[in-house]
Amino acid sequence: MRVATVALVCLTAAAVCTGSRSPISDREILELSAQLFDSDTNNVYDHLDVNTGGRVPYGKSTDYAQAPLLEPFNATRYLSAPTYTALVNFYNNYERDVNTNERHTPEEHSEQVHFINKITETPAINKVKQFLSRKGYVPSSVNSFKRTMKALWFDFYGRRRGKLTSSGFEHVLLGEVKNRQVSGFHNWVYFYFLERKNQVNYLGYKKYKLIRGRNTAMVIKFPFKWDTYLKPVTSMLVGTSPEVEISLFTLCFYARPDRNCRVKLGNQQLVLKTHTYRSGGRSMIGSAYVDL
Q: Is the pLDDT of residue 106 over 80?
């Protein structure tokens, strides 16, 4: 059984940076990830109408899908959970061009705090917090853990020198534009909202798997266009709640940073990948996604 190397990932002054960390085994990651998926009370896959369309050959970015990936459904009813509404609050907050500095207003700060507060009220985040604090990776204090999560996901850094243009949250859950192509963008909820506005065009799938268990979901790999900008291939979970995705990515960021992180969701074993962005002696999420 392989175990993780013990590496320091200090995020804030409140983070645990003593180096006294217990290794995390592959089996522990599989067991905990399975629990996170099963406990997702805000999973909405069974209320989605998913159109995979045609299969796009590798190396092609032609449109093989006649319909949107996600047909309209009763979003008001099924996306009314506090973590979904907190997520939607961010949709007008960010500049998608990585060359443009981000503005951080007091209102946006409050929305970040609100989002962290809401996800830390869920079983998924609490399971990850308890596990990682027991292993010595994050603070055991609830308030210190919240500050650590906010720094990990929301602190700005520069993908262009001298500019604060990005954050882990923006890159992973919203997406950016870099060198006239889409970068990041691994969240189905934002994709659903942009499809409703005709701002993204799903081109068909490269590969997908249906996940069955106590909950149901899909993992899908596909190309799309965001306005005129192409994303040659992205991958995302479909139907899972924001708190479960944040929980899984946070777990893998600490347990297997910059390496394959094998998780178990329902009847599927999948690989998650996180990439570390290092700035000013701190490590933050540069990217996080499910690989397929």
A: yes
In this structure, how many other beta carbons lie within 10 angstroms of the beta carbon of residue 46? 10
Residue range 83-94: mean pLDDT, rounded: 92
Tens-digit pLDDT profile for residues 221-253: 999 999 999 999 999 999 999 999 999 999 999
Which one is predicted more confidently, 74 or 292? 292
Question: Rg of the Cα trace of the chain?
Answer: 18
**By the 8 A CB rule, do 14 and 139 touch?**
yes
- Give the burial string for 48-74 (b: 16+ CB within 10 Å, else e): bebebbeebeeeebebbbeebbbeeee
Read off the pTM.
Answer: 0.91
Complete DSSP assignment for the chain: --B--------STTS--SS-----BHHHHHHHHHHHHHT-TT--GGG-EE---SBPPTT------SS-SEE---HHHHT-SHHHHHHHTTTTS---BTTSPPP--HHHHHHHHHHHHHHTTSHHHHHHHHHHHHHTSS-SSHHHHHHHHHHHHH--B-SBTTB--B-HHIIIII-EEETTEEE---BHHHHHHHHHTT-EEE--BSEEEEEESSSEEEEEEEEEEETTEEEEEEEEEES--HHHHHHHHHHHHHHSTTSEEEEEETTEEEEEEEEEEEETTEEEEEEEEEE-
The C-alpha angle with vertex 64 and arms to 61 and 70, in degrees rounded to 5, equals 105
- Active-site residues, by number, are 171, 186, 231
